[in-house]
Amino acid sequence: MSVVQVQINEIDINYYNTYLGVVTKSPDTFTLPDTFTDPDPAALCVGSDRIVVFGAWKQEKWPVLDELAAGSKVGLAVDTDRSLHLYVDGKHQGVVAPDIPTPCYFMFDMVSRCTKVTALPVTSVP
């Protein structure tokens, strides 16, 4: 399974929201909403305070995303069963959601919290 990751180089501690996930629309036609209080049916977004699964809210929380700091690496992977996995600093955090549609595109919405990130080479995990 291949993990797509970014490394956080600089962070603004005054903000806490970080969202990442997958979208089913091509990046050429998809625009991230200003906030995820109005969920987009083409996006699955996971944050420390909520998950939005293709337009529906889930009460599940991922507080590990609040612990991201400069130097942290955060990544996503979709396995052969089409389940979305979350990785933080190389450690598997669990399955975010099953039944991810194809095609899908990874997205990292870190603009308010992270002031500088670096896209990392894709890595393989068992």
From TrEMBL:
Residues 3-119 form the NHR domain. It comes from the Eukaryota. This is NHR domain-containing protein. The lineage of its organism: Eukaryota, Metazoa, Spiralia, Lophotrochozoa, Mollusca.
